[in-house]
Design brief:
By secondary structure, this protein is an alpha/beta fold. It contains five helices and five strands; from the N terminus they run H-E-H-E-E-H-E-H-E-H. The chain has a five-stranded parallel sheet, with helices on both faces.
């Protein structure tokens, strides 16, 4: 499955436009992406395709587009860090929106940060999001914060293996993702 995911990366890079197959109100998994230059979005788009092939109704958004999602059970936050520990342009409004809107139902979440260990503020925005989510009622950490340095397939692969194992475990328990 991971090989399939990695093979999707060049395809996803072809366009920055988000194309969702499922409506936001019917999707049990929301993938919210914060990406300044577009690289993190490549990972998010490829991830979207993989989860859809597993029969999960999933919807991809830029983080600034966060709103209440009535069918959401999982929220995956994939984000880079911009400048000195800040949010990328398309995630500047996420924290404020999430604090105002929250989530009407209990959800599980995972935060994946993208950056470079060369910088002192490596994945700082992802750490900020992880703290926000941990301190929010109705949000349970599904997979611990993962940091990906320099777009490392190995770093992302470690998160992906946990994600895949948890997903298959939940599917085998009869959770309805449709």
């Amino acid at each position: 499955m991971f090989d399939h995911f990695v093979s999707q990366l060049p395809i996803a890079a072809a366009s920055h436009k988000i194309e969702n197959r499922f409506h936001k109100n019917e999707s049990s998994m929301i993938i919210a992406c914060g990406s300044e230059a577009g690289t993190t979005m490549v990972f998010a788009k490829a991830l979207l395709e993989v989860v859809i092939t597993q029969g999960i109704k999933a919807h991809l958004i830029e983080m600034n587009a966060y709103e209440s999602f009535p069918a959401m059970r999982h929220l995956l936050l994939l984000t880079s860090t911009h400048g000195v520990g800040g949010a990328p342009f398309n995630a500047l409004k996420f924290i404020e929106k999430f604090r105002m809107i929250g989530t009407p139902q209990s959800i599980k979440y995972s935060v994946v940060g993208f950056g470079s260990k060369k910088y002192r503020t490596f994945c700082q925005y992802a750490e900020t999001l992880s703290f926000l989510m941990k301190s929010t009622d109705r949000c349970t950490e599904w997979i611990p914060l993962t940091k990906v340095s320099d777009q490392s397939p190995k770093d992302f692969g470690l998160w992906y293996l946990q994600f895949s194992a948890r997903l298959e475990g939940q599917l085998s328990l009869g959770f309805d993702y449709q």
